[in-house]
Amino acid sequence: MTAPRTPGIAHGGDYHPEQWPEHVWDEDHRLFTLAGIDTLTVGVFAWSLTQPAEDTYDFTLLDRVLDRAAAEGRRACLGTGTAALPPWLARRHPEVNRTDFEGRRHRYGQRHNFCPSSPAYRDASAALASRLAERYADHPALLAWHINNEYGGACYCDLCADAFRGWLTERYQSLDALNDAWWTTFWSHRYTDWDQIEVPSALTEHWRGPDHTAFQGITLDYHRFTTDALLGCFLGEKEAIRAHDPDTPVTTNLMGLYRPVDYHRWAPHLDFASWDNYPPLDAPPTRAALGHDLVRGLKDGAPFWLMEQTPSTTACRDVNPLRRPGELRLATWQAIAHGADAALWFQLRASRGACEKYHGAVIGHAGRADTRVFREVAALGAELASLGGLTLGARTPARTALLFDWDSWWALETSDGPSRLVRYPDVVHAYYRAAREAGADVDVVPVTADLTRYEVVLAPVLHLFPDGLAERLEEVARRGGTVLATFLTARCDPYDRAFPADVPGPLAPLMGIRVDEWDARPADVAHPVDLGEVRADARLVFEIVLPRGAEPVGTYGADFYAGTPAVTRHRHGAGEGWYVATALDQPGVDHVVRRVLARHRLLGPYAAHPGIETAARVTPDGTRLLFVLNHHTAPARPPAHAAVTDLLTGRRHAAGEPLALDPLGVAVLRPQ
């Protein structure tokens, strides 16, 4: 099963007509036509309307919404509506409400408020999905199924405790295996009966919050269990849909770098990947790009759908800045450059009440077509229509891979050493950013990915190291590639037990080093690192490296380990293993990564132009497109890398001729 078939890049977004009287819908569709909106995501939070009581279903409203969409020539991603419980379900079955980390059973309220282990929730959500599929499988407006919404969160109730024990029994088969994996001889924790196992919470193994645990093994497994429990809910609905509709693609909207759920475990079960892009405040452009590439990597490089982004502001933060003129266009083209075949907004018409009434929308409360945001969305819709289906199905020709691992994220940030100040996504982003700003296309892939097509593999803070990975990385180097690893990589096995070997464990032969000691300091302590042409600062963790065949590339400049290696390179076969033993600042990371990329001639044509982002896609007919994005608020004139035509303007450029990029401008270049 693949992504929905559309004639061009799908353009639209979340639409909640149930929040407005029906006479407003006429104006909505008139404005949708003006803005080039062809795709509506509907029904995402409609459970209490489509099933107002346990034995009552009412599809009157959805009938009208979908019939109207079809009459207007629009298609719909139909939500199952199961992300927020209806009040009657919580009242009739109190066990569907979650119990929080502190052990408190919640009452009805908010959203994402369901216990994933609750049979009552699973039965009711699957029953609703079944009824929807039975009714709408053949509806002409149906484009895709949108199950639930932004799955996440955890529950710690007795139902989850029982389900966790069952999950552990299946995983370990015996208590001896579990006790060994969790190292329960520590602190007299050896279990002699499955019923003795409690969920790890503030009432059991944790103190000072979810990241402080006495036993990393049980906490790590509870993260894995929660991922699987939520996935079980998704699969229950998908199975119910498939009983009536075997063909329409099914997805759920993910959230990129979202710690609670391991999306790699979900990837095989999604017909196509989709996600909601709300980057952190003041994040550089590469943070959103990392999310795009991570989601694209879930389906082995297949295009994804951008299911949500704001056209103006969000409403879920203490401060919600407005997107400046041109930013919504640039963000959309960035998504397409990184593999999106759809660009959808949250939301199409603003809500009048509740916590999202100030969230940005294509159409505001007054329903005007002359606002700046609406005009920009409409102009973008016309631009997308002019491109047609050229980019659909196009893939990213990356020769650089970055290994991303939820298990390492969970383990690193619940570890009691060496430093709780190390944040997994920040280190990963630093290396991703360095590669992307150097012009390399990057695939963000799981540790299980096939690495044979990559020349460079980046493995930052890969704290847990699965069996067989070291051998696969050695093969990358043997055939001439480069593997780069960092501090706190290959420290523990998949159960979070330290390797009974020299650091960095199974990676030591490839890196050609040994690490016996490591220092950690507060964030305001910086040690200089001499990288030859560049002087960098290092913080947080300082591993003391003993070369065992590796050569120093950079050295510490302070403390008793001054003069010892901070960065090393080791020849292995026809390739190299690089090791960065400390948290370098961004200029330091940039310098190291560019040296690695230069060895493989992977520096992009605009690597010397800060603020100019490039990304390539290759269409199904073999055409290579280069997207050039100007993140400056001033014009830019980088030279054309070859004889090209800008598909957005129709202008032809000879090789070396300056491209005229407006502030926050975009060019889509095709070879002449």
TrEMBL record:
<feature type="binding site">
    <location>
        <position position="157"/>
    </location>
    <ligand>
        <name>Zn(2+)</name>
    </ligand>
</feature>
<dbReference type="InterPro" id="IPR017853">
    <property type="entry name" value="GH"/>
</dbReference>
<dbReference type="GO" id="GO:0006012">
    <property type="term" value="P:galactose metabolic process"/>
</dbReference>
<dbReference type="GO" id="GO:0009341">
    <property type="term" value="C:beta-galactosidase complex"/>
</dbReference>
<feature type="binding site">
    <location>
        <position position="111"/>
    </location>
    <ligand>
        <name>substrate</name>
    </ligand>
</feature>
<dbReference type="Pfam" id="PF08532">
    <property type="entry name" value="Glyco_hydro_42M"/>
</dbReference>
<comment type="similarity">
    <text>Belongs to the glycosyl hydrolase 42 family.</text>
</comment>
<keyword id="KW-0479">Metal-binding</keyword>
<keyword id="KW-0326">Glycosidase</keyword>
<feature type="binding site">
    <location>
        <position position="160"/>
    </location>
    <ligand>
        <name>Zn(2+)</name>
    </ligand>
</feature>
<keyword id="KW-0862">Zinc</keyword>
<dbReference type="InterPro" id="IPR003476">
    <property type="entry name" value="Glyco_hydro_42"/>
</dbReference>
<dbReference type="Pfam" id="PF08533">
    <property type="entry name" value="Glyco_hydro_42C"/>
</dbReference>
<dbReference type="InterPro" id="IPR013780">
    <property type="entry name" value="Glyco_hydro_b"/>
</dbReference>
<feature type="active site" description="Proton donor">
    <location>
        <position position="150"/>
    </location>
</feature>
<dbReference type="GO" id="GO:0046872">
    <property type="term" value="F:metal ion binding"/>
</dbReference>
<feature type="domain" description="Beta-galactosidase trimerisation">
    <location>
        <begin position="398"/>
        <end position="602"/>
    </location>
</feature>
<dbReference type="InterPro" id="IPR029062">
    <property type="entry name" value="Class_I_gatase-like"/>
</dbReference>
<dbReference type="Pfam" id="PF02449">
    <property type="entry name" value="Glyco_hydro_42"/>
</dbReference>
<feature type="active site" description="Nucleophile">
    <location>
        <position position="308"/>
    </location>
</feature>
<dbReference type="InterPro" id="IPR013739">
    <property type="entry name" value="Beta_galactosidase_C"/>
</dbReference>
<keyword id="KW-0378">Hydrolase</keyword>
<protein>
    <recommendedName>
        <fullName>Beta-galactosidase</fullName>
        <ecNumber>3.2.1.23</ecNumber>
    </recommendedName>
</protein>
<feature type="domain" description="Glycoside hydrolase family 42 N-terminal">
    <location>
        <begin position="14"/>
        <end position="386"/>
    </location>
</feature>
<dbReference type="InterPro" id="IPR013738">
    <property type="entry name" value="Beta_galactosidase_Trimer"/>
</dbReference>
<dbReference type="GO" id="GO:0004565">
    <property type="term" value="F:beta-galactosidase activity"/>
</dbReference>
<feature type="binding site">
    <location>
        <position position="115"/>
    </location>
    <ligand>
        <name>Zn(2+)</name>
    </ligand>
</feature>
<feature type="binding site">
    <location>
        <position position="149"/>
    </location>
    <ligand>
        <name>substrate</name>
    </ligand>
</feature>
<dbReference type="InterPro" id="IPR013529">
    <property type="entry name" value="Glyco_hydro_42_N"/>
</dbReference>
<feature type="domain" description="Beta-galactosidase C-terminal">
    <location>
        <begin position="611"/>
        <end position="670"/>
    </location>
</feature>
<feature type="binding site">
    <location>
        <position position="155"/>
    </location>
    <ligand>
        <name>Zn(2+)</name>
    </ligand>
</feature>
